[in-house]
Structures are given as structure tokens and as C-alpha cells.
Amino acid sequence: MRVVLTQALATALWGCDPFNATFDEVEDAQYYEAQELIATEPPSGELVVMDWNIKFGGARIDFWFDCHGDRVLMEEDEVVENLEGLASKIRQVDPDVLLMQEIDVDSKRVAYVDQVQWLLDNTELNYAVFASQWRAHHVPTDGIGRVNMGNAILSKYPIRDAQRIAMPQISTNDALTNYFYLKRHILTSIVEVPEYGDLHVLNVHTDAFAQDGTKELQIDLFKDELDRIDRAGGVFVAGGDLNTLPPGSVQQNAFPDSVCESEDFQADDFRAEEDALSAYYEDYTPAIPLEDYQADNAPYFTHSTQGGTFWNRKLDYLFTNGTFVPGSGLTHQDASSGGMETMPLSDHAPITVRFALEER
Amino acid sequence: MSTRWMWMCGLAMLLMPALASAQEDASAEVEASAEVEAPERAFVGDTALLSEVGRWEVGLSGPLRYGLSVELELAVHPLLFFVAPNAQLKVAHGQRGGWHVASKHQLTYPTPLLRLLAREGIGGILPSDRAVPHIVSLQSELLVTREVGAHLLSLGLGVQVAPRVGESQLVSIDLPFVYPRTAAMFGWATGIASVHMQGPIAGTFGYEADVRAFTYPGVDGAFAVEQGAALRLTTSPRFMAQLGYRLSYAGYPFDTMFNIVPTLELAWGF
């Protein structure tokens, strides 16, 4: 009782941030290093770039928010077992640069396992930067408790100048809800590639549940950031979970695994977003060429909310203003497409592409 | 800024009746002043002293206390009572070498409150899919208090146990001030030690300060230290207002964490 009263008083009197849930517009990202650095040869003309939304190591457990179950918390052995699955896929791909979304570093739901550090220590990757997307000492909803989830960039090579650039929140939420709600951002960094130089790497996870245009605004802001780097002469690889479909998607709503009835968790009707990514495809090179996708959507799907189904929509992307090796883009859907089953590992499939280290 | 002023005005309105009452009657003021000079029986809940026989005290967040006899004081948290039935008995054991000696025994059944907090949606402090067992929290504390001039110095040593009955999937609430007080539900016992001081400063103003340490061996985090201090306004034995802060440095399942919160207490005696 006293705690509730005093915390409320603290907020009212000092306007402070008692649950540590807010961020500056631009702030430094958090840097990580593997416990044991692995000596890495300079890349031979190409970098393998991978993007993966790992669902905080929740694999195919049915959680409360995707409406298939009611789980909130995992035990430590579950988390580690799921991370082992993710790490084995990462080791199989052996990426030079890995973009990750929904990775937890200090959350009760993952038994406080720092997943960035764990993955660094259990793969060939040496360095990482992390920026929070959802952070609070305690989220007083659904028993979530303490949470710190966000986006990370992992690399074999050193990373510098990593920043978290804030993006707007859903405008229709009240202030208290938004205080505890997800705070989307762009994670921007520079990977120092030996014998090549600086490569800008940007990671984003735009809003899934916005119905007020916030997601479209976030997608545009990410594009603005890419344009700014491009105009300045920088070379980038950028991607993440953009939570929208490519132009020309055949199915845009009524997915078989969409079972949420709550207005707060409606994320699967994309009919009003058909051109949300058109500018990306017009200005930059995607890992999966648009004409390939439009010829047949299914081999490039990256998401499904339920384990018993198969991938049924594409939400995850990689783009560059440099050069991707033609035909190197791959969506790792299963053993026949990537050499390993990925459905049990997360609710997103990883995508990879080979980036050509050449003069622009 | 407007919210800040609303809180300030609200605080002033809460204090006003007590301040007005203090100014109304000069004789009452003299009487009150006289009683303030001997404050050891008013608002001394955290010491080894007991409330006077027949005296009631209630606080905004503190318990409702009643002086049952010269040797017994009964207390309950009225707001919590219906969701976490509780009772506290303070027993006086006389004086030893200038120290007042008392023991405090508290019994709480927090299960209904924990089950209320284990819910979906807003207000869900605990996950709804975890079984909350029947828990009885028993806390006993030995208190000694010595008068140092007009000040009261108190030392305390106690233990809390919280036996569980039935299936337990209870998860901890990893928040400052809450975690140390619920840690016994996950281990075998929590040890508590405290140093407390209160006394006058000038006129109706006084202070209260304390340090409280918890240790919960075998439970993640294992320890907590809290320190609080507050400025106290005692207009009469019938009213006390207190504004201060409380610091916490504690171990949790994730790491250690430092926190500070403001504290406000209003208490009435009759």
C-alpha cells in the first residue's frame, strides 16, 4: 500500500520515471562483447547478413499475447533450451552480421537470461549492440513484471557509433498505457569490416498493433534514416521486422492463425498498407527481389503465430544501397530451404543474404 | 506542473483541519503542547513503547492500533484486512537497564491478495496461470527502546517465516520494498534487524529515521537494506503528518538495485 502511494506521489510531484520506462529521443545503445573473442579472418569479398525476430527465445510456446495460450513466464531451462535451438541455426548459417528483434536482456519472462550475451557466448559472433524497445522495472499487466526487450545487432567485427533513435508511439493509447507500452526505435550502428571499412547496419521493429497510422509513420522514418545515410555517401545494410507485407501480396488478411479478438492485438489486416514498402523497393536493393516474391509469395513467407501451421506472411526484410550478391537471398523456412527446421524455433523465419564488399 | 499543484493543494486540504484545530483554542494548544513534550505514548508504533490504554491510532498507510492494556497493543492494517487478513500484537516486557523491552508478533494470510493480483490485463502483478498456495506469514520481532534525552532510540531483531500449503507456482514480485517482505514465501525464513530513532526538533516539528536490514538466505538476491527519514509535524496527540523519503538497496533475481521513493504519512489518534 505504502509503495503504491509513494510511487504515485513520486510520479505526480516530480514527474520522474519511477519504473525506468522512458528514453531520450536519441541515446547511445548498449555495447556487448563475447566472453571469449574468436579470431576472425578478414572477409573474402562478401559478408553473410542474417535477420531474425527470435520471439525472446519463446520458440513455439503459446503465450498470452498471440491469443493461442496463456503463458506469461518461462523457466530458465526452457529459455536456455530454446536459445540452444536458435544458436544452432545461427552457427549453421555462420553470419558475419546478425540483426535480431525481440531479444530480451533483463526480463522476468525469460528468467533474467541476458540473451544477447548468451548468444555471443554460444556462437561465432564477437560483438553486439542492443537498444531497448520495452523496458520497465515492473509492467503491472498480465503478470509480466520486469522487462527489457529490444533489438540487437551482432557481428564478428567491432561495432561503433551505435545509437537508439526513438520513433513515435501509438497515438490512440492514453499516457499511462504508453508509459508502460513498447517504444519503437531505429537501432543504427557502424560495423568496422576489415579491409573494407565502415558499413552502416540498421535494425528496426515497427509497430504490430497500431491502427492509427503510427506503423506507416515508423516505416517512413526508417526510410528517411536510410536516405540520410545514402545521401551522405554511406553504405548500409538495413532490415528487421517491418510488420507489413510487400507490394503484390496475394493474401492480406484473414490468416488462418489470426485468432485474437481483442482490439489491442489486431495485427493481421494489411489491406490498407499495400504500398507501405514501395519506396524501399524502388530506391534500394532487397534481399528477396520483388519480382521473385510477386511471382510466388509462399517461399518467402517469414511469419506465423502458431506452431501447428506453416509460414503464411512475409514481415521481415533486408535492404541495401550497396550490392547483394544476386540470387543469394534466402528465407530459411525449413530443411529444404535453409537446411534446418525453423518453425519450432520462433514465430519468425530468419532470412539471409550475401552482401558484396565492393566499391560503390 | 498543474498535476503537481493539484497534489500540493490536496495535501494542504488534508492538513488544514488539523492546523485549524490546533489554532482554535489556546488552552487546547497548551494542553496539546504539554502532551507533545511527552510524546512517548503518541505515534510510537515502531518503538518498544505501547499506545496508552484505550487509545486508538490510525494512519493513512499505517495500521489501526489500540492500547488494550499496559502490556498489550493490538493492531491491524484496515485497508489490507479484507484482502490480506492480518493482526499484530505488541507485548510489553517491562524495562531492563533503562531499555523498554517489547515483542511484536504479526500474523498475515496474504493468499487472497496474491490471488487478486494474479490476473490477466491491467493490474495483473502476477501471472494468472500460476497457482497461488495458501500462505501464512508469521513475523516476530524483539524491540528495545531507550530514551536518549527527548529522543527514542529503538533496536529490533526479528524473523519472518511463511509456510505454504498446497500446490505452489508462485512467482516473486521483484519490486523494491515488496520483494524483501515476500522473500520468506520462497525460502525458509527472513531475518530482520532495525535501528530506529524519533524525537523532537523544534516546537511541533520532529523527525523519524530508521535503517532496516533483511536477509533471506537461499532466495535470489539474499539481502535488502532500507533507510528512511522523515520530518514530522505533531500538532497534538490527535494528529501527526510526516513527509520524507525511503531508500532501498536490495538484491533481486536479476541483480541488485537502488531505489528512492518519497513517503507521506498522516495519522490520527483518539
What does the model show?
The complex is a heterodimer of chains A (360) and B (270). Chain A is an alpha+beta fold and 360 residues long. Chain A is built from 7 helices and 14 strands. Chain A has a 7-stranded mixed β-sheet with strand order 1-7-8-9-10-12-11. In chain A, strand 8 (185-193) and strand 9 form a beta hairpin. The longest helix of chain A has 18 residues, at 76-93. Chain A is globular. With 270 residues, chain B is of the alpha+beta class. Chain B has a single domain (3-269), classed as monomeric porin ompg (Porin). Chain B is 19% helix and 47% strand. Chain B is built from 5 helices and 14 strands. Chain B has helices at 2-24, 26-37, 78-81, 111-117, 179-182, and strands at residues 56-59, 64-67, 72-76, 86-96, 99-108, 134-135, 137-148, 151-161, 164-165, 190-202, 205-215, 223-236, 239-251, 256-269. In chain B, the strands form 2 sheets. A 12-stranded antiparallel β-barrel of chain B has the order 1-2-3-4-5-7-8-10-11-12-13-14. In chain B, strands 6-9 form a two-stranded antiparallel sheet. In chain B, a hairpin with a 2-residue loop joins strand 12 (223-236) and strand 13. Classes of the chains: A alpha+beta (360), B alpha+beta (270). The interface between A and B is medium-sized, with 31 and 37 residues.
- The helix fraction of chain A, in percent, is 10-25%
Task: Give the overall silhouette of chain A.
Answer: globular
Structural class of chain B: alpha+beta
Strand order of the largest sheet of chain B: 1-2-3-4-5-7-8-10-11-12-13-14
Helix tally of chain A? 7
Note the beta-strand portion of chain A. Answer: 25-35%
Key phrases:
heterodimer; A: 360 residues; alpha+beta; 7 helices; B: 270 residues; Porin; twelve-stranded antiparallel β-barrel; two-stranded antiparallel sheet; globular
Quick recap of the structure?
Chain A has 7 helices and 14 strands.
Topology record:
The complex is a heterodimer of chains A (360) and B (270).
Chain A: H1 2-14, E1 26-28, E2 30-33, E3 46-53, H2 76-93, E4 97-104, H3 115-121, E5 127-139, E6 145-155, E7 159-166, H4 175-180, E8 185-193, E9 197-205, H5 214-231, E10 236-241, H6 278-283, E11 285-286, H7 290-295, E12 316-320, E13 330-331, E14 351-356
Parallel strand pairs in A: 3-4, 9-10
Antiparallel strand pairs in A: 1-7, 2-5, 3-14, 4-6, 5-6, 7-8, 8-9, 10-12, 11-12, 13-14
Chain B: H1 2-24, H2 26-37, E1 56-59, E2 64-67, E3 72-76, H3 78-81, E4 86-96, E5 99-108, H4 111-117, E6 134-135, E7 137-148, E8 151-161, E9 164-165, H5 179-182, E10 190-202, E11 205-215, E12 223-236, E13 239-251, E14 256-269
Antiparallel strand pairs in B: 1-2, 1-14, 2-3, 3-4, 4-5, 5-7, 6-9, 7-8, 8-10, 10-11, 11-12, 12-13, 13-14
